[in-house]
Each structure stands twice: as C-alpha cells, then as structure tokens.
Amino acid sequence: MSTGSRYTGLIEHYRDRLPVSADTRVISLGEGNTPLVQLENIPREIGKDIELYIKYEGLNPTGSFKDRGMTMAVTRAVEEGSRAVLCASTGNTSAAAAAYAARAGITAFVIIPEGKIALGKLAQAMIHGAVVLQIKGNFDVGMRLVKEVASEAPVTVVNSINPYRLQGQKTAAFEIVDELGRAPDYHCLPVGNAGNITAHWIGYCEYAHHDEGEVTAACGFCEGASCAYGGRGVTDTRPVMVGYQAAGAAPFMRGAMVDHPETVATAIRIGHPQSWDKAWKVREESGGWFDECSDEEILAAQKLLTSREGIFCEPASATSVAGALRDIQSGKIPEGSTVVCTLTGHGLKDPDTAIKQCEGAMQTVDAELDAVKDAILKHLA
Ligand code: F0G
Known about the structure:
This protein has helices at residues 10-13, 41-46, 66-79, 92-104, 119-127, 139-150, 163-169, 171-180, 195-207, 251-254, 276-286, 295-309, 315-330, 351-356, 369-380, and strands at residues 36-38, 51-56, 84-88, 107-113, 131-135, 156-157, 186-190, 240-246, 289-293, 338-343. The protein is an alpha/beta fold. The strands form 2 sheets. It has a 6-stranded mixed β-sheet with strand order 1-2-10-7-8-9, sandwiched between helices. A 4-stranded parallel β-sheet has the order 5-4-3-6. Strand 7, helix 9 and strand 8 form a beta-alpha-beta unit. The site of ligand F0G has 22 residues, from helix 4, helix 9 and helix 13.
C-alpha cells in the first residue's frame, strides 16, 4: 500500500479505472507517469504555430510503452494462478514480458523473428531470464504460433490480444488529459498491431463525459456490455487519432494484410495487425486517418528529434513525428492545434541503427593536449 506521495506505478495511480480489486497483488516496476515534453525548436524551424508535445514512453522501466500493458497483464495472470506468460514480439513486448515475469517470479516464453529484433531488446529478454525462442519467420508467423500453442500449454498470452494489455495502455491518454487539462486536438502514433492506438482511444473515451452503461468506443474490454467507467468523465474533448505506418509494412494503407512486411523500424515490421477491426473503428469514431512514412522519413525524424530537441527514440517511434510534421506542413493538421506524438520506445533499444546513421561523427585523435585542442578549435572555426 502506498502512503505519502511516492509514485508506485499506474495501477495504484488509476486503480479505480482498472480491472483490479482491493486484494490484487500488483506487479509493478513504477511504470507510467512519463514526461509530456513540448517541442521548442522544431515548430520554430518549420515556421508553424503549433503546440507540439511528445509523450516520452521510452522512459518507462523497460524503455517502451509496453510496460503499461504488461503491468496489468502480468498482475492479472498471477492473480489467476498462471505460472508462465507467452508472447510473440518484435522486441519490446518480449523485454517487458521478461522483466515483469521476473518481478512476479514466473516464467516468460518469448518468440522472436530471427535477426530482426534490435540488440537492446534482445539483451533485455535474455538478461531477465526469459526463454527466448527465435523462429525463421516474421512477427506475424510468431503470433499465429502463439495463438496455437496457447490452447495446448498452460501459459497466459500477453500480446495485446490480452484485453488487460489495452486496459493498462489506456492510462497514457489519462496522463495526457490530466496534464493538459483537456484532450489534445490530434494524437499521432506509430501503428503496428494497432493495439496502442486502440488503447489510447479507450482511455480518451473513458475520460470524456458519457452516461453510465453506454458503450462509447472500440473498447475490447467492455465491448458488447457497458462501459464500466461511464458517468465519470473529466473532459468534454477527445482527439482526432492519427496512425502512421512504415511504408513497407502498411496494411492499413493497402486496405489488406501484407505478407512480407519490411522496414528499418523493426518494432513495427508487422503485416497482419491483431487489432485490425478495432483500429478502423478508432479512425471512424475519432474522425482520424492512417498514413505511411518511408524509412528515409522515419530516420530523418529520429535524427531531427535527437539533434534539435535532445530526445532519443527508436526508429518506429519517430514514425509518429515524421507523419505529424508532414501533416502539419501541408496544413492537414491546422495551425493553432495542440498535437501529441507518442514516442513509443527509447533510442537506446536500437544502438546499431543509430550508429549507422552517424558515419563520420567520431574522430580518433592522439591522447595529447595539442591534438585535442586542435580538434576543438577546428570545429569551432
Ligand atoms: N512502437 C514500438 C517501439 C513498438 O515496439 C510497437 C510494437 C509499436 C510502436 C506499435 O504498437 O503494435 O500497438 O500498434 N511492438 C510490438 C512488440 C509488436 O512486439 O514489441 P502497436
């Protein structure tokens, strides 16, 4: 039980809006409560009057937004007596599952596409003691295997098809409204499985005034029943939801599944999104849209954030900013708007891609005063 003001994670903080009871043993690493940082330099440089924020989800305990969902999914798995969790992953889910399983004292099995997950994420899954199963197949194949195995082995699936995942992830929307005092006009996210864009919409809808019992959104939890949180709105506003995909892995742009997704943003190298129907509903209900960004645009946005704002996110995360900047520049997102872009994962997750982008950024000099001084003065000249 937390007393005083120590922050002890999103389940404690939003307990009355999450599916836990008074005796639930909460498995937490202090996730959530991430910074909402207003960008200063980029809006000025592009000459647009826009209030542009990033929600820095890379600052969660394992370095991605997955921790929000994993604290809920593992808490409920443990409560239901499960001894093991299982997921397919492009990396971040496996890192989070491994950490929260370690915390809970249960086993994590993770299925990852061989050679296609960033080094930091692999290190996390391994060091936390997950059983790592590499497959010669992509994430979508792994996901199919997870569903098949789950019906034949005593494991709890902790991919976002587990409804508790979305319940945890909806709290990011709560935090944004709590800080801004209202919903932003636009909320931009990178889209892979489309679980996170769905979770945000669930959160925004719950926080918007509606009647008890009314189903307000693409909520996988209350679906067909009633909204358990109706009548407790805190704002009259909801954002337009905008989802950006990597061009080589953009089923929402093709209007159909993609069998061989390819992108430098390995986190969203997904061709068969699990929350397909829900995400279309989010688009429709919020009046939003999907769009795609090339790998070049994604890497350019990553570089822009690091060099102009001091914010380091992984490539997949930069997709939200790449797309938003394009739509701000074209006027599709009009001046005067308040825009939030979610940066889903930390840049340190994928050091290889970062270093590859910075060729020539390092020089070797003699370990002598003159050599170091020359290098500095030459640079300043
Ligand atoms: N950004 C990052 C950094 C991710 O790791 C993911 C998904 C997404 C965006 C997309 O979120 O799937 O909810 O639309 N990563 C999953 C994983 C698939 O296995 O870590 P989504």
